[in-house]
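name: query_chain
kind: protein
chains: 1
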Amino acid sequence: MSHAVQERPVAFAKPRGPLSHARLPRWTPLAVAAGSVAAGTGIGLAAGWHSKVQWGMISALLFVLATYVLTTKVEGARQAKDRVATSLVWVCFVLAVIPLLSLAWVTLSKGLEVLDGYFLTHSMNGVLDAEAGGGVYHALLGTIEQVAIATLIAAPIGLLTAVYLVEYGTGKLARAVTFFVDVMTGIPSIVAGLFVLSTWTLMLGFGPSGFAGAMALAILMMPVVVRSTEEMLKLVPNELREASLALGVPKWRTILKVVLPTAIGGITTGVMLAVARITGETAPVLLLVFGTKLINPNPFEGAQSSLPLYVYEQYAVGTDAAVARAWAAALVLIAFVMILNLVARGIARWKAPKTGR
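structure:
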């Protein structure tokens, strides 16, 4: 005999409170930021402060405080702490970007007054520093040659040193190399210039040249290349190395065909950071290259000029024409570094291993 089973309805407990909490609208941060800027500007004007930096600091403080108060009232204290942390990140970002944008704007506005085809294709030969006219061709040529020679010296040495430290280095020698790389990272540029001056010029008797300046720049560039390359090589998974070695591939070929291509993007970025660091150096060039108004295409003989040295010399003259040339040369220097970075990123993307199918 079968017994009928009577189903009983399942009773669910009713929620005691709402499942979702109140949230501020998405436009709240922008509204709070606009109100904080207006309030900070008003406080600065009322207090008689003429520095816009003070207005910005007051606005940033008001933005963080207003964000915390509003979020605490609407969303609760826990969410308020999260929003305050986010607000602090944005404030720090804005504080870091504003000087950069200000520098770029001033350089563009002042440099474009003189920068043209004539300025890029002529030197200062026959032009007095106090007069208008002249160009930056001799300095641009010197910078290109000196940076290229320094990169050819420092990049291979730094790359091989990093490969040794990551792939082979153990024991006292590796620790000694790491120690000296760390020491070289903090060497002032004037010390590198004095070292090359005392050895290359005073002891060996060679005169000023672009090559002498390039050697000092290579000393400054090497530790940056070593450190950045070392960190990039450490990020390569050991599984890739083990898989290659398991197939019977020699270690040197594994490094050449697996490790380096995997880290080529980071390595290129590190090299470009080192190039950007040495491109604006003036002290070694002033000691070893001496500077000249003439075009000297030979970096191994005779004095040369460079963009940083050109900017220093023209700004030191102090006349309106010289200062205008200094701003234009500074703009050329920034554009030179940007072009190098774009080219390096393109090469890194081209040579990087393809991950898609």
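note: The CA atoms of residues 96 and 298 lie 41 Å apart.
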